[in-house]
Amino acid sequence: MERNGENSYEVFSKSMKLNTNYRQDEDIFQLSRNINVGFFASVVLRDYVAAILNTPRANSEWSLNLGKEIKQSGKRVDRACGNVVSVEFAVLYHWHAALSAADDKWMEDLLRKQFPKLKSLEDVKVEMFQQVMMDYGHELMKTDAKDWTFGGLKRQADGSFNDSELANIVKNCIEEPAHEFGANGTPVSLKVVDIMGQLQAREVFNVCTLNE
User: Fold this and answer.
1) How many angstroms separate the CA atoms of 168 and 176, rounded?
2) In terms of domains, do 102 and 200 share one?
3) Catalytic residues
4) How many domains, in total, are found in the chain?
């Protein structure tokens, strides 16, 4: 058989060559991405964490080993399973106070959509917030991730977003200033989240919270 002056073998050979080149490009991209992720993770674990713990001034070269095996009671601990984070990060690193006014407004709209008769955000209880997140999460789970949208955007025929609309969101986010971090700076819409963090620390982790 021939197609455009080429026999089947020539067509097959070209097709295999294109597929091979694509696979090589994809392999190189994935390898490069892993190297970048590993590099930045090393910077965080060696430099950033060291600065927090002040190990250089203590004449210590200790650092977290990214690839070290984690064991508990002599048995290997499963990794990359579920949502795993240290108690320190779960309790102390709440940056709600630094969120912008636009972020605060987004959360407020989410709460008021669920509870339209809500008079004040101060009235939002833990159970109410959990209900909002459960309903919101279940709504997302009903939709394929490739069809998710945000910020009022609509996907185009090929499933992508409009570049100009995306750029406009990024531009607005850059120009939106963050609030100053402080003990009393948490937006009212996220006050209940801070309360949930304190309850988790006390009742689940048995540790103190940032406020304490």
Assistant:
1) 12
2) yes
3) 93
4) 2
Residue 165 lies in a domain: yes
Tell the burial category of 48 from Cβ atoms under 10 Å away from its Cβ (0-12, 13-18, 19+): exposed
- Flag whether 87 is in a domain: no
Write down which residue in 44, 76, 108 finishes a domain.
76
Distances (CA, A) of 53 to 91, 94, 136: 17, 19, 38
Are the CB atoms for 77 and 59 separated by under 8 Å? no
Tell me the whole-structure pTM to 2 decimals: 0.56
Kindly state the percentage of the chain with pLDDT values over 70: 85
Write the pLDDT tens digit of every residue in 174-210: 888 888 777 778 899 998 988 888 888 888 888 876 6
> Is 88 domain-assigned?
no
What is the Cα–Cα distance from 198 to 195, expressed in whole angstroms?
Answer: 5
